[in-house]
Amino acid sequence: MRKKLLLVVNPISGKKLAAGYMLHFVDRFDKAGYSVIACCTQKDKSACEIVINRGTDMDLIVCCGGDGTLKETICGVMALGKDISIGYIPMGTTNDFARAFGIPIDINKALEAVLEGVPRPVDIGTFGDEYFNYVAAFGNFTDISYTTSQRAKNLLGRGAYFLHSADPFFKMKSYSARVEADGEVFKGKYFYGSVTNSECMGGLPVLKNLGVEFDDGLLELVLVEMVRNPADILSIANSLAKKNIGDNKRIIVRHCKEVHFIFDKPTDFSLDGECAEKITDVIIKDIKCPVKIIAKSKELITQEDLVAEVMEDLI
Q: Using one digit for the tens of pLDDT, what is the confidence trace for 163-179?
């Protein structure tokens, strides 16, 4: 008996090319022995709705889109309460989660990875009553992903973010907060803050070499103290470039199960690149391994793979 596969495609992702790949995806999955039901998202959170409505009897659920599409798909699988593996074909702008998790950015390689890869358990974060897949963030530049127009993203890809960041660079502001992380307390004015489960943020391996694991029951807290002068900015940029932010005195990094943010005024948060409601008080927690996402095994991810993906972004 053929296995059942639900394919969820965000048609505006990948410079609006994702929908054009649907027949190719369906054909490949059909040849691999799956009976495929293919659906396109139509509005916000419809990936979650599609999974809930169509995913009950599926053996595999595959989504194609950006980080937001993956998040919605995960929410749908969690709502089903079933052990159904998730395949991901990344066609977003930054594809942070895919880069860190070992999912190829090349579309055809990602497709084959779904069929040949290994389901790996993944922790998920809760932001109050909401879920996020890999990052909840506040501060300067965190709104770029959802304030940059979709047209610009489709035309320029990651370059749209860099262009859109020029204006806020000269309007940086501080965020006053009390932060409690597994009993440890931080209080001050911050340039940026996040709770994440990925090495990559904004297309950069920000937490490289800091022991980030997707299934360890811990999330990573990052707090960047408010910059005071150009020298602080250069220091942070240098730490990012050298992948040693843990050694920078203005940057706090902690591995923790729970983080409580208390702000002096309502503050915007970004969840997996999408705008959340303004909050003054929120608790973020780790849920250990509620879903499995297919990726290459760690042993198969080579340095050549990483170099090839970087070169692909530069071309």
A: 344 445 456 789 999 99
- Residue 4 pLDDT grade (very low, low, confident, very high; cuts 50, 70, 90): very high
**Is 189 in a helix, a strand, or coil?**
strand
Helix (H, G, I), strand (E, B) or coil at 209: coil
Read off the pTM: 0.82
Q: Is 220 exposed, middle or buried (0-12, 13-18, 19+ CB in 10 A)?
A: buried
Residue closest to 64 by CA, chosen among 28, 31, 33: 28
Residue 299: is it exposed, middle or buried by C-beta count within 10 angstroms (0-12/13-18/19+)? Answer: exposed
Q: Where are the beta strands (DSSP E) in the chain?
A: 3-9, 34-40, 60-65, 85-90, 118-127, 130-132, 135-139, 175-181, 184-196, 219-225, 251-256, 258-267, 270-271, 274-275, 279-295
- Evaluated on CA atoms 54, 55, 60, 62, the torsion sign reads positive
| Burial tier of 92 (Cβ tally within 10 Å: 0-12, 13-18, 19+) | buried
Spatial distance between the Cα atoms of 2 and 204, rounded to a whole number of angstroms:
40
